[in-house]
Amino acid sequence: MSKLIKHKGIIKDIRNGIAKVEITQLSACSGCHARSYCSASDKKEKIIEVSCNGNSFKTGETVILISNSDIEREALLIAFVYPFFCLVAVLIIVYFLSRNETIAGITSLAILVPYYIIIGLYKKKLKKKFVFSLHKTD
Hints:
- By secondary structure, this protein is of the alpha+beta class.
- Helices cover 41% and strands 30% of the residues.
- It has one domain: CATH 2.40.50.
- A 5-stranded antiparallel β-sheet has the order 3-2-1-4-5.
- The longest helix is centred in the middle third of the chain and has 30 residues, at 69-98.
- The chain is elongated and about 60 Å long.
- Keywords: Membrane, Transmembrane, Transmembrane helix.
């Protein structure tokens, strides 16, 4: 059974039934009492687009984005694991064919360009697959 992933966010804009919700992604250091003195603490703000048709949300409202953990796993596979295996496979194959480390290294890095271009071409399909639901906070 998959567990739910929840993020608290603020609605920045609503147009055509799509809400742009800003979430703050904090690093592990963000909970530390010394974070303001340390340069290692990290905080990123991201904008997530979520369908809000039929619900009465307002700009500036604090909401909760919910998805299941299966989405997280698949996103990690697509963004990091598959390209890693492509890179390693091309590195090994090209090295054994050419016996040249430089060519193998450059080719293995270059294979990532078409991989991410293909991912970009499937952006609409992936957006339909990776769906968040929007809920009001209590």
